[in-house]
Amino acid sequence: MLSISIRVCYNNPAACHMRDALGNAQTAGMDFYISTGALMAADMRKGSGRKPQCAVPGGAHGQVPQMKYRKVYIRLIITYLAIFLLPLIINIVTLENISVSTRENICASVYSNMSHTMDMLDNNFREINTITARLTANSNIRYIATQMDEEDKKIEISKIQYAQEYMAAMQIQTFVEEYYVYFQDADMVITPDSVYLYKDTLRSFFRYGDMSWEDWQLMLKGHYSEQFFPERMTMQNGKQEERLLFVQSLVTDSGVKGCLVFPIRSEGVKNLMRDAYISQDGWAYLLDKKEDETILRVPAADGTFELVPEEILGNGRAVQEVTLNGRKAEVIRIDSDYLGLTYVSVLPKDYITVQINKDQQKLFLLIVAVLFVGIGSILLVSWKRGKRIDGILQMLFSLGSEAEEELKGDEMEYISNSLKQLIDNNAGLQESIIRQKPVTRGLLLERLLHGGEGVSLQSLEDYGICLRGNRMLVIAFLIGGPDTSEVEMYTGETVVYKQVLHQGLEPILSGDKYMCDTDMDSCAVICTLEDDFQQPRAGFLEKLEHMSETFWEEYGVRVRIAVSSICKDMTEIGKAYDQTYDMLTYGAGEGKYVFFYGDYQDSKEYYYFPVTLEERLVNAVRTGNVEAMHAQLSEVYQVNVLTRNISPTMMHFLVNDLQCTVFKVLHSLNNRVEIEEEEIYRQLEQLSRENDILLRFNRINSLFKYICDMVKAANKESSSRQAEEIEEYIHAHYCDSDMGLTKIADDFGYASTYFSKLFKELFGENFATYLERMRIEQVCSLLKKGLTVEKIAEQTGYNSVYVMRTAFKRIKGMTPNEFRKLNYDRKE
Fold first, then answer.
1. DSSP, residue by residue, 320-348
2. What are the UniProt keywords, alphabetically (predicted)?
3. Helix axes of 693-733 and 752-763: crossing angle, nearest 10 degrees
4. pLDDT reading at 823 higher than 60
5. What is the DSSP letter of 407?
6. From CA 800, how far away is CA 44, in angstroms rounded?
7. How far is Cα 363 from Cα 99, in angstroms, rounded to an integer?
8. Please, which pLDDT band fits residue 434 given cuts at 50, 70 and 90?
9. What is the dihedral of CA 657, 658, 664, 669, to 10 degrees?
10. Is 123 helix (H, G, I), strand (E, B) or coil?
């Protein structure tokens, strides 16, 4: 409440006006206490006819009283503090709940990583089982298994060569580097690259743990189905490494004739099982439920490892808190229904407690910092605003001596102009946003159709694209075609046609629809579906055909329509668009104008190799990205051979199309990389002579890999020169205290994010680690010279001795002084 005391004397000509002003001020939320004695005197003398005048204490007539409204400041400060401190207090009260959330987040993260590991391993072993089935069914391998024995190893060498080529064609991109087939009767081993016929060569080829080759032969005489052998130090083909084994029996009509042995690199599986929590204090292991045996162990960083008792794992709980030898821990487990494996991770409770304390400490420091900054800001803002309100009130209650003065309103004019400017700016900003919103929305949809990289559900929803929790269809339209090749269409017409097509979907499909222009004469619409929608819904096909016929009859324009399979997630939209693009591109010869991917997929007279996928394949090869190249070819093989099983004729066309892609890649290199054309033509000639589908794909894969290797070699040569320049720069500037990723990236003309990735590729470690290692090496050499740690820190680019000492102890395991005493003082 703001209290103002005003004394009004008898000679006040504006008493009534003041009362009105004060009455108006009270309606604005301010209370005014006026001296009752002065007002009574003024009222008693109204009837005397004398003109009352204003008495201004301490000043002449017409002067403005210098009133300071301190309570204005107090009320502003209290209001701002109440608004600011309320959420702050709520955060402080809920600070203790962070322990529960941190534990749940850590356990959820570990569980998520384990689920990802399980899915990857299950997929890899599905591929291994597929290979096992095909090898078992291969005529050459069955012939070797049944016709050869240890006494009579006479067989056509071509049979073995064909078997090896078949095995090489099915090399798997997993943790298996080289697998082999052991034939019992022949006592022989065949790998994709080698043949071992005699016992002495067999002994030098393979050894599992401490087991001799004879004992291993005895083991392989059993019947195995998806059998795991625990992790051991395994020697295969001269290379020793810890591996676990996956064994499948080679079964023929006459019984078990051997085994297929897949040695799996333990370290590759362990790297998958490790994550930001497990790799420090926790440990994990892989349990084979069928044999009740631990087949893989991932100990903690300090070597700690302990199995969880069976009675604890037997309760079926995914996450539980237990006590192991007096030490509390979180046990996270997940079961694989496909392989019968159990993934177990153990996270000590004390590690979680440390993380909780760190999080609470960070939050507390943040609250303290916000509190001080907030209170300082409140005092500053309250002082500025209170001062302006003080001036406005002074202006409103200024009284003249002779007559009532008009208010000039400088402050009000300032406020009015500021508000007008703010409104104008906001209006312009809103208009700009409104103009740019369709453009941004279209770009988001276009990126979503081409894979959705960098697009989140929230960013889509910000622009009115709601896909969360929905099933979706991608419907693509192509305006024009063979029947309308002579019809001249203008840009404006195609825009109108697209809008008509978009509106024509409204009565056909309920739900939201988002249209995106993909070309001058084509567009795609992402449609959300009702829960009961099943493709194709009754009448759905007829309505789309009617839409196409209506366009032809009314406009003389042919419209082809392609409908994808149903997408259950936003990440599937890119592949769905590839499907529609493929149908619109290759489906024109049927004389149909509406295509459903379900019908198209069942047909064996078309192959799947859309232009978008070919572009990704070309980009992968021309940049030397072998992994991406394998991923694109695997998708082509998966869809055409495993899923659709297209006809041999279409397979021939597909291989020819892939050969054309080879020439596109060579053209895109633009003589930037030296490619031996004779080698290319030699491999193409071998490809044309192959009849087996797997071998043809293997030849294509080898051809693309050859080009990738040549590109990588050229890039490596260029990278080596670049690495030398960067290394020289760091050697010259490591002692600068402002040396950092941003500075070196700017000096070399790169963005910091790109330079960070480039540095990791060139040097095998990140920039900060490399710089710190170099500085520590210089610290060691300067310690030998007897310089003080302060001087050394200054000469090696550290801002303080504390920072240098911390980095030194982290790398060397001791302080600089301890290192000096241990290495240099003792020698002296």
1. EEEEETTEEEEEEEEE-TTT-EEEEEEEE
2. DNA-binding, Membrane, Transcription, Transcription regulation, Transmembrane, Transmembrane helix
3. 110
4. yes
5. P
6. 81
7. 12
8. low
9. 180
10. helix
Within a 13 Å sphere around the CA of 670, how many CA atoms are in the beta-carbon half? 2
Sequence-separated (6 or more) residues with CB below 8 Å from residue 193? 164, 168, 178
Task: Calculate what percentage of the chain has a pLDDT beyond 70.
Answer: 76
Report how far residue 428's alpha carbon sits from residue 617's, in angstroms, rounded to the nearest whole number. Answer: 45
Q: Cα angle vertex 197, ends 195, 201, to 5°?
A: 85
User: What sign has the CA pseudo-torsion 334, 337, 338, 341?
Assistant: positive
pLDDT in tens, 521-559: 889 999 998 877 776 656 788 888 888 888 888 888 888
Q: Is 52 helix (H, G, I), strand (E, B) or coil?
A: coil
pTM of model > 0.70? no
| Residues with Cβ within 8 Å of residue 571, at least 6 apart in sequence | 452
Distance, CA of 144 to CA of 162 (rounded, Å) = 11
Amino acid of residue 105: N
Query: Which of 115-119, 121-125, 602-606, 654-658 is least confident?
Result: 602-606
**Tokens read off for 603:** 């047909």
- Using DSSP, state whether 247 is helix, strand or coil: strand
Per the structure block, which two tokens stand in for 278?
């497990």
Question: Do 669 and 622 contact (CB within 8 A), yes or no?
Answer: yes
Start-end of H helices in 228-348: 266-273, 310-313
> So what's the pLDDT on residue 397?
46
* Range list of β-strands (E), 422-569: 472-479, 513-519, 522-528, 559-563
User: What is the overall mean pLDDT for the chain?
Assistant: 76
Q: How far apart are the first and last CA of the chain?
A: 82
- Residue 347 gets the label, from left (phi > 0), alpha (psi -120 to 50) or beta, of beta
**To the nearest 10°, the Cα dihedral for 509, 513, 516, 522?**
10
Name 228's Cβ contacts closer than 8 Å, sequence gap at least 6.
Answer: 244, 245, 246, 247, 288, 291, 293, 295, 341
Angle at 515 between CA 510 and CA 517, to 5 degrees: 160
pLDDT digits (tens, 9 = 90+) for 795-819: 888 888 878 888 888 888 888 888 8
Q: Take residue 810 and report the two structure tokens written for it.
A: 């982290």
User: What mean pLDDT is predicted for residues 319-324?
Assistant: 88
pLDDT in tens, 128-143: 888 888 888 888 888 8
Dump pLDDT digits (tens) for 443-483.
888 888 887 777 888 888 888 899 888 889 999 998 875 44
Tokens of 787: 């310089």
At 92, the amino acid letter reads: I
* For residue 536, cis peptide bond before it (omega within 30 degrees of 0): yes
CA dist., res. 729 & res. 525, Å (int): 52
pLDDT score at 261? 94
> What value does the CA radius of gyration of the chain take, rounded to a whole number of Å?
40
Beta strand extents in 435-481 (DSSP E only): 472-479
Residue 593's nearest CA partner among 553, 555, 546, 554 is 546
Residue positions counted in the chain: 828
Q: Where do the domains of the chain lie, and which CATH numbers do they carry?
A: 1-55 (no CATH), 101-116+273-354 (3.30.450), 136-271 (3.30.450), 434-602 (3.30.70.270), 604-720 (no CATH), 734-825 (1.10.10.60)
Looking up tokens 């051979």 gives 641
Residue 598 dihedral angles phi and psi, to the nearest 5°: -60, -45
Q: Are 80 and 419 in contact (CB under 8 A)?
A: no
Strands 522-528 and 472-479: antiparallel
Residue-wise pLDDT tens digits, 560-598:
899 988 888 888 888 888 888 878 876 655 677 888 887
Distance of alpha carbon 722 from its chain centroid, rounded?
A: 29
The two structure tokens encoding residue 123: 């997929």
Strand stretches in 550-685, DSSP E: 559-563, 594-596
C-alpha 684/C-alpha 817 separation (Å) is 66
